[in-house]
Amino acid sequence: MKEFIKEKLFSDVHKQIRSLRSVNDGLVESAAAFSDRLDRLERENKRLKNELKKSYVNNRLVDFTVDSVWFYTMMKSGTTYTINVILNYISLLSDESSSPVRNELLECFHSTHNKVDNPKIGSVLSEQEAFLKGVGFKYFVHTHRKIASLSKRTIVLSRNPLDFIVSKYFYMYKNRGVEVSLEDKTGALIKEYMKYYRGLRAVVSGGNNFLELRYEDLMLDPEGQFKKVIEYLDIEYDERLLRVAVEYSSKDSVRKMEADTGGAIIASKNKFTGKSFIRSGKVGDWKQYISSARAEELLQELEGEGFDRALYKYE
């Protein structure tokens, strides 16, 4: 009798255990399903936030295009140099005794696209409005990223891919203490270059009112190229003042300003360890890091993606 009762009790206990295990398994499955659903909702929420932010930024940028000029440029294609020369020229037109524009002002005109949702955008735009007063434009809006709506005037700036690859490698990796070889990053840099290239060619072929500049021409004939910019912007042209503006923006002048202020212009943040934003600036600097045979391989690879090598100078 005792054995019967014992077996009965154990049997009931085992049934309860099995029942509890079944309930527990169900709860685990439900929890997993809930967690999965929560993850999906969080991803969707993040996506929607990004879409809303993108829409907000683009709408603000479209607003800025009224009576403004767009600077749509590849990274490492002479953006800082170009904006620096133009700002120095405008400053000299206003006052021939002007000193080179300060880094703080230059930053108000560089990468405007990235500052749209920044609380400080108001002060940035106020600085621009005050500086450009009398020139005929409300803002100079600079971006490295393609957007749908462009202003009535757009300045497009690019560079040959070989010098781009080397310059971007030093800027993003070597001068930030990242131990990686140029060859290891070449594939990713080619993809990045073609993203810029396609976007820029879309602007050029899209019937927009644009002025296309190339880094190589800016380096080899700065005064001639910036005369084109001044005429394109319908700003008063003064050959002597332009010469001074170009000198104010030269490598030596910028390096002196960096030494005086104690940091590289524009690139002083995000672990940038270089003493100067300017590294070489020479057309054909790629030859020190890429062999002729490898350069030809890269150019052929780029041509397979739709690149036109004849658009650029390489030395």
Automatic annotation (TrEMBL):
Family listed: Belongs to the sulfotransferase 1 family.
Q: Which UniProt keywords apply?
A: Coiled coil, Transferase
Q: Which organism is it from?
A: Sinobacterium caligoides
Q: Does the keyword Transmembrane helix apply?
A: no
Give any Pfam family that matches: Sulfotransfer_1
Which InterPro entries does the annotation name?
Answer: P-loop_NTPase, Sulfotransferase_dom
Q: Where in the numbering of this chain does the Sulfotransferase domain appear?
A: 67-298
Q: What is this protein called?
A: Sulfotransferase domain-containing protein
Q: Which GO terms describe its molecular function?
A: sulfotransferase activity
Q: Give the coiled coil ranges.
A: 24-58
| Record has Coiled coil as a keyword | yes
